[in-house]
Write a structure and sequence with these properties.
Order of helices and strands of chain B: HHHHHHHEEHHHHHH
Oligomer: heterodimer
Helix content of chain B: over 70%
């Protein structure tokens, strides 16, 4: 047996042995580190449209913004606010809120985040075609000093904090100057190819390393991320869009991806029963409704007819049978947790009462009405429409239903092309007044209120309350006003409330998604822990 | 030959022109691209401003004329969604679809020729009759259902094959190909099989029927009488003549195959042209829709031209159309 001693092996130099041992140890450590590098493979139904957070106001854009940028403050699971880039804030006077920024926060480029960057971001938001509407009540963002800013509104405005969640600080020095085609780097271009669409520098936990639009996006963790207290341990993310629901679910069940969203309702049971996968569901905030056009169909002008329709629609049954429990039946616009939610308003299915109301209104023999709904926008939208048509037949309202893809539906909605039209809505500000402003305020071209009020519903008191609400900063007063709006709309049967869509996400065991999820569907992946 | 090819070129351009007119004229009925580009809270005034910027409010003839002017320079418009020239986007995804179609064609040829030939030679053989019967299942089940079922069986339950995507790809002369890596090949198996399931029964039966007829013909009987070996008769003489109509049908079916890539690619999240087209329709990305239709029209004309040329090569007795018009 040959005995290998260090002298014979390394030609008589013991240091070489120690050196090689150390070197091997180093390799072993890096290898284990590499093996321990956590990579999250995830699949959404679509990949981000653009890397520019101001290009399009959509869920996908905001989800990406939370990954590569940080907002001043963000919503938490209980619909409260968590401090992010703003450490604390206070109201200075009825039109001004002061924010104190965190010090020493770095952008991906290495530049430091200061008040100048936040003001730059605010100015750009005011220029963005999609976001400017949200910032209309704001006068300006003033700089007090390097780490202190003030948001000033034109009138006293109650939703300053709600709107501050949209301010994701952007690296103004990175976006300064001109690109190699001679265009300004900070240009917001919707259908051209701008610098900001494919380049980004923010303060967020992840940096995009590779992006092939429609195929995959790769992220790596930002080493100088300011939030050292974040429990997140994901080093790399590979996001692939999988458009087809069954394929996305199959990818999760076969282990090809670790986390998927959204989860189609048809597969909820299957995923729930699977031992290797966790399912998380939450009650949502998107209300699905039918609007009743009073101009097109004069019968709908009569409050009793509208009430009859609401009494005839068994929305609890729809949630149970068609949505398979994947929803919460609604009797008002605001979901539970919103400031305007009135717990006394409950779903009111009562077929006998519906028939009686029709008789009182003089329509015991019913009438004919047209209905339109999309078939690829909301969960089970076309099936819901068919069910409602069937329910209205019971009170002798003969429905001519047409369903179509959303691309064709929205132009029809704009034209008010049917007597009863479906629309779902989610409040951009997570606040109750947003629903009424867009859906049921008297249509007013100059202010933009009632833009989606296809029924031409008009109530002076509701309009008055909406306008008052915009200026009222006292939460208690706002609550009573918003609840009054919901009660009026309920009493007048201004629209047919169906339900709020639930949300569902699924991940394999070991990927702890429950703490990072919220009802707005902004998974805070920077804080995700996985093994 | 030159006359033949130049005639085909003119035909190709005519086809593309007609397609572009049709695609343009239905664009108003496809929906409003703005809905996909802007958020729900954007005011009507802003939307109209964008429409004007995108020249969507101009009359049809002006829009089409603008499109034609740019098209002859090779610019088929800029995709609203990708913000790049539509032609570039499609050509980027073309290799993926061609790989899929090529893989399916290989599977079809590999299976249909032997099975069809032997089914003709041994018509009563039980195994071959079973295979023919089962192939009907392939054509009667919609391709997306076959695809989803195969994902469920082979990926979720058995875990043998990946469930989506293209896997690892490498660059080959500027094209991204997947079949050169093991991972890429694994990803190719299920989609190609699903796609081939539509055409397989057709070709098996076609080859079988043609072969049976050819085996009854005079010259084959003469070859038997002359005492040629079985193999020579079957595979040299009979097969060649069998394949003639098959080649012609194959050329036409390429169009069907490309059409079905739309469904197959969608289910497997295969980043090819078909998936691109479906998304473009959903988003009302009109430039991309028009560009795709034109490119597919062109592919169709090219494929059929190649098929005609091959036919001329395989069957020397056939003269290509131009030879007659030359006049002797």
């Amino acid at each position: 047996m040959k005995i290998l001693n260090c002298k014979s092996f390394f030609g008589g130099n013991g240091f070489k042995l120690i050196f090689s041992l150390l070197f091997n140890c180093l390799i072993a450590i890096t290898f284990t580190a590499a093996v321990n590098a956590k990579t999250l493979k995830m699949a959404y139904d679509a990949d981000p449209v653009s890397m520019d957070p101001h290009e399009q106001l959509s869920g996908g854009t905001l989800q990406l913004s939370h990954m590569i940028f940080d907002p001043l403050l963000r919503w938490n699971r209980d619909l409260g606010f968590d401090a992010r880039l703003a450490e604390k804030w206070e109201r200075v006077d009825e039109k001004t809120v002061r924010f104190h920024l965190r010090k020493g926060v770095k952008f991906h480029s290495g530049n430091e985040m200061t008040a100048l960057d936040v003001r730059w971001t605010f100015d750009r938001l005011k220029r963005s075609p999609d976001f400017k509407g949200i910032f209309v009540p704001f006068e300006s963002l003033n700089i007090v000093d390097k780490y202190t800013i003030e948001l000033v509104t034109k009138e006293p405005y109650p939703l300053v904090l709600h709107t501050a969640t949209y301010i994701f600080a952007m690296d103004r020095k990175f976006y300064d100057g001109y690109d190699n085609k001679g265009r300004a780097k900070d240009a917001i271009v919707k259908h051209g190819d701008a610098f900001a669409s494919s380049n980004a520098s923010g303060t967020g936990p992840f940096i995009i390393t590779k992006r092939e639009q429609g195929v995959r996006v790769e992220f790596k963790r930002f080493n100088n991320y300011w939030d050292k207290r974040s429990p997140g341990n994901v080093d790399k993310i590979v996001l692939t869009p999988i458009k087809e629901d069954p394929t996305r679910v199959a990818a999760l069940l076969s282990g090809d991806v670790d986390f998927i969203a959204p989860v189609p309702p048809a597969d909820l049971d299957r995923i729930d029963r699977n031992a290797n996968v966790d399912l998380v569901t939450m009650s949502g905030t998107r209300i699905i409704t039918f609007q009743l056009n009073q101009k097109r169909r004069p019968e709908l002008k009569d409050k009793r007819v509208r009430q009859a329709i609401v009494f005839a629609v068994n929305n609890v049954g729809i949630v149970k049978k068609i949505m398979r429990g994947f929803g919460t039946a609604a009797a008002q616009q605001s979901p539970k947790g919103y400031i305007g939610y009135d717990p006394s308003l409950k779903p009111r299915y009562n077929l006998a009462k519906a028939k009686q109301l029709m008789k009182e209104a003089g329509y015991a023999n019913g009438f004919t009405a047209s209905m339109m709904a999309p078939n690829n926008r909301y969960v089970n939208d076309d099936k819901i429409a068919e069910a409602v048509a069937g329910m209205l037949a019971k009170i002798k309202i003969k429905i001519n239903l047409k369903t179509m893809p959303k691309a064709q539906y929205w132009p029809k909605f704009d034209e008010r092309a049917a007597d009863i039209m479906m629309i779902g809505w989610h409040s951009d500000t997570e606040d109750s007044s947003n629903f009424t402003e867009f859906l049921l305020h008297t249509p007013d071209e100059s202010t933009g209120y009632g833009q989606y009020n296809s029924g031409n519903y008009s109530n002076a008191r509701v309009d008055e309350l909406v306008v008052l609400n915009q200026k009222e900063t006292d939460p208690a007063k706002r609550r009573s006003m918003l609840q009054e709006i919901e009660r009026i709309l309920h009493e007048e049967a201004a629209f047919v409330p169906l339900h709020w869509q639930d949300r569902a996400w699924a991940a394999r065991k070991g990927v702890d998604i429950a703490p990072i999820l919220n009802v707005m569907n902004f998974p805070y992946l920077g804080d995700l822990k996985m093994n | 030959m030159f006359a033949f090819l130049s005639r085909r070129l003119v035909q190709a351009m005519l086809v593309m022109l007609v397609i572009s007119v049709i695609a343009f004229s239905i664009q108003d009925n496809l929906g409003d691209p703005l809905r996909e580009l802007v958020g729900q809270s954007v005011s009507e005034a802003e939307r109209q401003k964008l429409r004007n910027q995108m020249n969507l409010n101009d009359p049809f003839v002006i829009q089409y004329w603008r499109f034609l002017k740019k098209a002859v320079q090779g610019d088929l418009g800029t995709s609203y969604f990708f913000k790049r020239p539509a032609l570039d986007v499609i050509l980027d995804k073309l290799p993926a679809t061609l790989e899929l179609v090529f893989g399916s064609t290989v599977i079809i040829i590999f299976f249909s020729v032997p099975i069809g030939v032997f089914a003709a030679i041994y018509p009563k053989q039980w195994f071959l009759r079973l295979v023919m019967g089962m192939s009907i299942i392939g054509i009667s089940i919609p391709v997306f259902l076959t695809a989803i079922m195969s994902i469920y069986i082979f990926s979720v339950e058995l875990g043998w094959l990946p469930s989506f995507g293209r896997g690892e790809t490498v660059e080959l002369y500027g094209w991204t190909v997947g079949f050169l890596t093991k991972d890429g090949l694994l990803h190719l198996i299920l989609p190609c099989t699903a796609l081939s399931s539509i055409m397989l029964p057709l070709f098996i039966r076609l080859i079988r029927a043609e072969m049976m007829e050819v085996l009854e013909s005079e010259y084959v009987r003469f070859a038997w009488a002359k005492g040629l070996s079985r193999r020579r008769i079957w595979f040299l003489h009979a097969l060649k003549n069998t394949l003639l109509p098959v080649i012609t049908v194959g050329g036409l079916q390429i169009g069907t195959l490309i059409a079905f890539t739309i469904l197959t690619e969608t289910v497997f999240q295969w980043p090819g042209m078909g998936f691109l087209f479906l998304e473009a329709v959903n988003r009302v990305d009109t430039p991309l829709i028009v560009a795709y239709l034109i490119v597919v029209g062109l592919i169709f004309v090219i494929a059929n031209t190649i098929v005609d040329l091959i036919y001329g090569l395989v069957n020397p007795t056939v003269r290509l159309a131009s030879s007659y018009s030359g006049g002797d």
